[in-house]
Hints:
The chain is an alpha+beta fold. Helices cover 23% and strands 27% of the residues. The chain is built from 14 helices and 44 strands. The strands form 11 sheets. A 7-stranded mixed β-sheet has the order 36-37-41-42-40-39-38. Strands 2, 3, 4, 5 and 6 form a 5-stranded antiparallel β-sheet that branches. A 5-stranded antiparallel β-sheet has the order 29-35-32-33-31, with helices on one face. Strand 41 and strand 42 form a beta hairpin. Helix 10 packs antiparallel against helix 13. The radius of gyration is 38 Å and the shape is elongated.
Amino acid sequence: MISTLFHSHLFLLILIGMILWILATVQAQGNVSVGDFLSANDRNMTWQSPSGDFAFGFYPIQGEKDRFLLAIWYAKIPERTIVWYANRKSPATDRDSKVELTSTGHLMLKDPKDKELWRSESLTKDSQVSHAAMLDTGNFVIASNNSANIWESFKYPTDTILPTQELDVDGYLLSALDETCYNKGKYQLRFHEGSLILNQIDMFTGKPYNNYLSFETGSRLIFNKSGHIQIQNSTGSPRNLAPENAVPKPDSNYYRATLDFYGVFTLYSYPRNPSGGEKWSVLWFRPRDICRSFVDSTATLGNGPCGYNSICELINDRRPNCTCPPGFSFLDENNPYTGCKQDYTSYPGDCNPDGSTNGEDRFEFKPMSFADFPFSDYGILKPATELECRQSCLLDCSCAVAILQDPTVSPDGNGTCWKKKLPLSNGRFDRDVIDRTALFKVPKSNTSRTNQATPNPSNENQNQVILILSVLLGTSAVFNFCFLVAISLIFFCLYQRRLQYLDAIPSRRDLETHLRSFTYKDLEQATNIFKEELGRGAFGTVYKGELPSSYGNYVAVKKLEKFAQEGEKEFKTEVKVIGQTHHKNLVRLLGYCDEGEHRLLIYEFMQNGSLAGFLFGVLRPSWQRRLQIASGIAKGLTYLHEECNTQIIHCDIKPQNILLDDSFTAKISDFGLSKLLISNNTRTLTGIRGTKGYVAPEWFRNTPVTVKVDVYSFGVMLLEIICCRRCVEVEKEEATILTEWAFECYREGIVEKLVENDEEARSDVVKVEMLLKVAIWCVQENPFMRPSMRTVTMMLDGAVQVPTPPCPFLVDPMI
């Protein structure tokens, strides 16, 4: 009896609950009456459209407990995407908040203390409210007794526009701040001066910057019910904007167009009857490259999609990836779009009154290829070598990064250095920009200010302990002996560990060449997948790499791009020859890679770049250093021609192939590679090896070449060292060809004209004339008239007298 009564009551309670749920559902999907309200406490209670496609209510904010948005969202799909939300100044609200349809025709949002947070605006005046409703279009409306809309969400869009919605000349879309924060963002879609544009806004004042994309002229944006986005022009005719190559299917798909938080206007679709695992598909978006849009447009103000001091790179076709450059870190680790801050904090003593850096030895440069900040320039050097660019930025307290344009790929053949200061704006990473490298000035890792601060008490205590122990040990010969043994064991263990570390490098010592053999994978890791390019030449491309300290930390990895196809034996033979050369004026070969189709050579890294950058930059090198460099090159060539086991003819002597180490010692590079080079891989005529201006005449006469081709090239380069100008300069009408002009000056007795702007050289005119005579002997058209490099070395060192040279040309060009 009791059991039967209990079950009857239980059934009655369930039935009543179902009835109430059905009534609530009917209310939720019907009209909203005056006085009806929703509470954030009851998240299951919403006002739904008749079809159930859209819901109006409190939407929980991801990652924020008991925080909600008063919003409209897609209700039938698992990915319940928000299309509108209220109170954009401060959209998040607490659990006990509620929204009510008032008798005055307003939606009113209040917090738990009954304080008004937001209310809907009225489109009409003196209208009596009838009801409100969530429509199947996604539009929430408040209707009056005469069926006019007092308010509708379509007239106050946030970041999204839906089919049947229009955006007129006074309307706009404003992006959210980021994926999880719904406050006002920094991008705007609006009409301006008759055009639909995208622009960034100032986050503090809301004022717009210049547009970064302009669509078409018009006065109304229409998202029609068929799923096409159109622009209505001045004549009232609509023109399809999107999608371009797809036909919308509104019966089987939902559509929305959203101004994403990173500034891209995107048209999305989603199946109405998902089978599981679907996501919003992108049908169309603009701009195509948000990172590049700010650079290619008039939008020079603002901080770009990634914020200040950051670098933007396009990923997944439309969404930017934001990274911080060397010496910087994210302002907010959880949001990479907020920008980056400098890790190093400057101090008043870092800068001198004249703006120069105090203690520039505390800084170094971290290079990054393909990076640029187009709108942060405050200084420019042109022409400029890498050394000059680094030095200028290093000494300038305002300089945070310098952008160097590679002179070898510059249209005019001159390098350019742009100096940038903080904040850096609109940074981008573009692998198509191959001619620029960003040099970021950062403090050296071993110059931390904490190490330069007041003495650490613990260090003082340690010193005292060591002193006491030393005294105690000194009192006993036995203890001293034990102490020495312990120290020896420690050093022995450290040495063994170092050997193990070097042996752990996945490479081997080739017994035939006495060089270390590397795998291609090793060199990919060492060069960060061949990221930082040092230069290009006839033999291939050179990249900067990093290996363990036994190699001097940095190395230069030359990737031979076109080598002779005689196979591994020919390659190893030449590498063996190069590996057996040892001279202070030759770049040292450290190892090689001979794997499949890959042929690479690993050289020691030269800190001060090439002689070309040193000679032809803005600042003229000192005369004495130039003399030292000329002598060093001559000694290196003497070794190649006469002193090493196998005679080596370089075939391409020029300033670009002379590298300078940290003490400006000249070292010849690319020697011994001529046999590896395919015959047509040259910069002049087929079959001729060398570079225009430095090529000996016998190359053109189809006669056998000897070491004298290097002597000729050295003579041309010696003239460049004397004059600090290139051997061929089109802009100098009176002295286009350096060899001809130099001989004319010698014959006319006006040697000082060669160094007319060089006071140091003019004061040593006897030495200038001696070098000029050596150069003229070297560039004789008849190779038998040219001296050997050993004789040239002795002439330069003053060991033998330089005789008067004859005219170097078989036909005197001056007659």
